[in-house]
C-alpha cells in the first residue's frame, strides 16, 4: 500500500508539474508571438468581393490615400513601422510557403493581394488600425494576425486543462489511497494502540506516527515527480524539441526547478490532511 501511495503521488504530481509548465510555456509564447504579430491591410484585386472593391484592383491613387492615412496624426502614433508588399513579392512568398504543395502551381500573382504590413507599438491596439482603414476605398480587408494565434493558444490551453483535470483526478485517488493506507495501518496495530491508550497516551501522540507515515510516502512520490519534471524538461524539451523547433523559446530547467518545490509542498500538504482526517476518524470508532 505504501508503494501504491508513492506511485500514485508520483504520477499525479508529474501531471501537475507538466500542466504548470505548459501554462508557463503558453504565457511565454503569447508574450513573444503577440509582440511579433502584424496587422495586414490587404488591397483589392480584380476578384475581390468586398464593398470597397467595386471598382476592381486598388489603384495608385488609392494606395497613396492609404499611406497618407498610415502617416496621419491619427494612426502614426500607434505604428512602429509599415511596408508595402506587391503582387510579385507576395507570389514569391506564397511559393516558398507552399513549395511542396500542388496548390502553388494553380496560383498566379494577379490572384494575390498587395498588402501593407504594419508592426504596432502595442499589438493590443490593432482595433484602431482596423477602424481607420476597413472602410477605406481600395482596402479588401484588415486582418490582425493575433486572431490566427488565438486558435493555436486555445488548443494549447485545452491540452493544459485536460492535463490539470487528469492530475486532479489522480490527486484525488492519491488522497483516498493515503487515507485507506493509514486506516489499514492503524487497524493492523490496534493492539498496540489499545495498550498505548491504557497507559494514558494522548490521541495526538498516537496519531502522529501514522500521519508521518503518509507524509513520508507522499514526499518520496513528490521528490520523484520533481525529478521526473526536471528530467523531461532537460532531456526532452531542451535536449530534443529546442534543437528541432528553433522558432519557439521553450521553458527550461530554471522554470522546472521553480515548480519542483511547489510539487513537494502540495504532496506533503495533501498527505498530511488526508492522513490526519483518516486517523481521526479511526480513533473515534
From TrEMBL:
GO terms for cellular component: plasma membrane. The keyword Hydrolase does not apply. One of its GO terms (biological process) is cell division. Its main location: membrane. InterPro entries: ABC3_permease_C, FtsX, FtsX_actino, FtsX_ECD. Keywords: Cell cycle, Cell division, Cell membrane, Membrane, Transmembrane, Transmembrane helix. The keyword Transmembrane helix applies. It is found in: Cell membrane. Residues 38-142 form the FtsX extracellular domain. The chain crosses the membrane at residues 161-182, 210-237, 257-279. It is a multi-pass membrane protein. Residues 165-274 form the ABC3 transporter permease C-terminal domain. Pfam families: FtsX (PF02687), FtsX_ECD (PF18075). NCBIfam families: FtsX_actino (NF038346). Forms a membrane-associated complex with FtsE. Part of the ABC transporter FtsEX involved in cellular division. Belongs to the ABC-4 integral membrane protein family. FtsX subfamily. PANTHER family: CELL DIVISION PROTEIN FTSX. This is Cell division protein FtsX.
Amino acid at each position: 500500500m505504501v508503494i501504491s501511495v508513492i506511485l500514485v503521488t508520483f504520477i499525479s504530481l508529474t501531471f501537475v508539474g507538466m500542466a504548470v509548465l505548459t501554462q508557463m510555456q503558453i504565457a511565454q509564447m503569447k508574450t513573444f508571438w503577440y509582440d511579433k504579430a502584424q496587422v495586414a491591410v490587404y488591397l483589392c484585386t480584380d476578384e475581390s468581393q468586398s464593398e470597397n472593391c467595386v471598382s476592381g484592383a486598388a489603384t495608385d491613387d488609392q494606395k497613396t490615400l492609404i499611406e497618407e492615412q498610415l502617416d496621419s496624426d491619427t494612426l502614426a502614433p500607434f505604428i512602429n513601422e509599415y511596408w508595402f508588399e506587391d503582387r510579385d513579392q507576395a507570389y514569391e512568398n506564397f511559393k516558398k510557403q507552399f513549395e511542396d504543395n500542388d496548390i502553388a502551381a494553380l496560383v498566379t500573382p494577379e490572384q494575390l493581394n498587395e498588402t501593407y504590413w504594419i508592426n504596432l507599438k502595442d499589438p493590443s491596439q490593432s482595433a484602431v488600425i482596423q477602424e481607420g482603414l476597413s472602410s477605406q476605398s481600395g482596402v479588401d480587408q484588415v486582418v490582425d494576425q493575433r486572431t490566427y494565434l488565438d486558435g493555436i493558444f486555445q488548443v494549447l490551453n485545452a491540452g493544459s486543462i485536460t492535463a490539470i483535470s487528469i492530475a486532479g483526478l489522480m490527486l484525488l485517488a492519491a488522497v483516498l489511497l493515503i487515507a485507506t493506507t493509514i486506516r489499514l495501518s492503524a487497524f493492523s496495530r490496534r493492539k498496540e494502540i489499545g495498550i498505548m491508550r491504557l497507559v494514558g497516551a494522548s490521541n495526538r501522540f498516537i496519531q502522529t506516527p501514522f500521519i508521518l507515515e503518509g507524509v513520508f510516502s507522499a514526499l518520496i512520490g513528490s521528490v520523484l515527480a520533481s525529478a521526473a519534471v526536471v528530467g523531461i524538461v532537460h532531456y526532452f524539451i531542451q535536449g530534443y524539441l529546442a534543437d528541432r523547433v528553433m522558432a519557439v523559446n521553450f521553458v527550461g530547467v530554471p522554470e522546472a526547478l521553480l515548480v519542483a518545490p511547489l510539487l513537494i509542498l502540495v504532496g506533503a500538504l495533501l498527505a498530511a490532511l488526508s492522513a490526519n482526517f483518516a486517523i481521526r476518524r479511526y480513533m473515534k470508532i
